[in-house]
Amino acid sequence: MEKIIIGSGNQHKIEEIKAFFADLNFDFEGLDPELDLPEVVEDGKTYRENALKKARQRAEELNQIVLADDSGLSVDYLDGAPGIYSARFGGEDLDDQQKYLKILNLLKGQPESKRKAAFISVIALVDPFRKIEITAEGRCEGIIAEEPAGENGFGYDPIFYLPEYGLTMAQISQAEKNKISHRGRALKKMKTKLKESYN
């Protein structure tokens, strides 16, 4: 069975991706935490550039097929911020809660019409043996809630309100999230492309 390394140290993300691809004939593994790999400098101007950079660098270092993603939250009122800087928004030392509280603070008092947002994810796969590079993008539209809610999910999920559910991303089940989330949609496209490329 062909091995694919998930180029992420985020355990939530690794489990989400492994679960999504469980029915494919690949052995998906997270990055070995014991490996002392240099950090990938995410200096791309787009999610796609950053995802490809991560996948290319790790594929070269490990001599393995690598799947990586770059994702973030884009808020209309903030001119698309935090965008590709979502993971580092407000500074490297802030935890998830501090980051989303910062967003809520910036939108304080704004009506729902000014709180539109989208989660965006681009997944990249780099196969150094077959010289294959594949990317897939997913997007999920929503609204920034006025206050956080929910224990599921991670990152900005507690403040990302889904009008069709009447719940935040952190209040729906993982199975439901996989169907409608930005990463779930990107993974669905990636699954189709993997089947086409490795049939």
UniProtKB/TrEMBL annotation:
Mg(2+) binds at residue 70. GO terms for molecular function: dITP diphosphatase activity; ITP diphosphatase activity; metal ion binding; nucleotide binding; ribonucleoside triphosphate phosphatase activity; XTP diphosphatase activity. Its EC number is 3.6.1.66. Binds 1 Mg(2+) ion per subunit. GO terms for cellular component: cytosol. It is an enzyme of class 3 (hydrolase). The keyword 4Fe-4S does not apply. The active site is at 70 (proton acceptor). It catalyses: ITP + H2O = IMP + diphosphate + H(+); XTP + H2O = XMP + diphosphate + H(+); dITP + H2O = dIMP + diphosphate + H(+). InterPro entries: dITP/XTP_pyrophosphatase (IPR020922), ITPase-like_fam (IPR029001), RdgB/HAM1 (IPR002637). Its cofactor is Mg(2+). Substrate binds at residues 8-13, 71, 154-157, 177, 182-183. Keywords: Hydrolase, Magnesium, Metal-binding, Nucleotide metabolism, Nucleotide-binding. One of its GO terms (biological process) is nucleotide metabolic process. Belongs to the HAM1 NTPase family. Pyrophosphatase that catalyzes the hydrolysis of nucleoside triphosphates to their monophosphate derivatives, with a high preference for the non-canonical purine nucleotides XTP (xanthosine triphosphate), dITP (deoxyinosine triphosphate) and ITP. Seems to function as a house-cleaning enzyme that removes non-canonical purine nucleotides from the nucleotide pool, thus preventing their incorporation into DNA/RNA and avoiding chromosomal lesions. Homodimer. NCBIfam families: PRK14822.1, RdgB/HAM1 family non-canonical purine NTP pyrophosphatase. This is dITP/XTP pyrophosphatase. It comes from Halanaerobium saccharolyticum. The lineage of its organism: Bacteria, Bacillati, Bacillota, Clostridia, Halanaerobiales.
